[in-house]
Automatic annotation (TrEMBL):
The lineage of its organism: Bacteria, Bacillati, Actinomycetota, Actinomycetes, Kitasatosporales. PANTHER family: CUPIN DOMAIN PROTEIN (AFU_ORTHOLOGUE AFUA_3G13620) (PTHR38599). InterPro entries: Cupin_2, RmlC-like_jellyroll, RmlC_Cupin_sf. This is Cupin domain-containing protein. Residues 1-46 form the signal peptide. Residues 81-150 form the Cupin type-2 domain. It comes from the Bacteria. Keywords: Signal. Pfam families: Cupin_2.
Amino acid sequence: MRAWSRRRAAGPRWAARWPRAARSGRAALVTASVAALAVVPSAALATPGSGVTGTILAQGTSDGTVKVRTKGRTDVVVRTITVAPGGSTGWHYHRGQLIAVVQSGTLTRTLDDCSVEETPAGKSFVEPSGARHRHIGRNLGTEPVVLYVTYLLPAGSALSEDAEPPGCAHA
């Protein structure tokens, strides 16, 4: 006990050796810890929802980071698209971005630079906006391709705009 009381008595001298910033940092840490403990019990008291149901229409994983940008008023449209075996969308572009999930089948897209991308069921992709991102989607398989697409378009825009194929395209 005596050692403790000496240490306690030496407290102000010991504290004087610590920089003021270190003492205030410890105080901030203690305050934050107490505040966090005060919040934790409230999460346990959250009420469960009732009378609410949800259905996942489609789910897909992107191959990379999904970046979405819009400017001004934006129409958000969710649509299912079915492309029959042997069918195509025709060359087109969008005035805004879209996010697509392939629910079934495999969509084969030829892009403006004539590169080809295949997206099977369970995958997703983002199509950029603008005429320089024209493309065509084809179903080269034997089963219908079903897409769930979310369009993010400037208010009042059409879902797509027809486009001429690029010079490198054969169809």
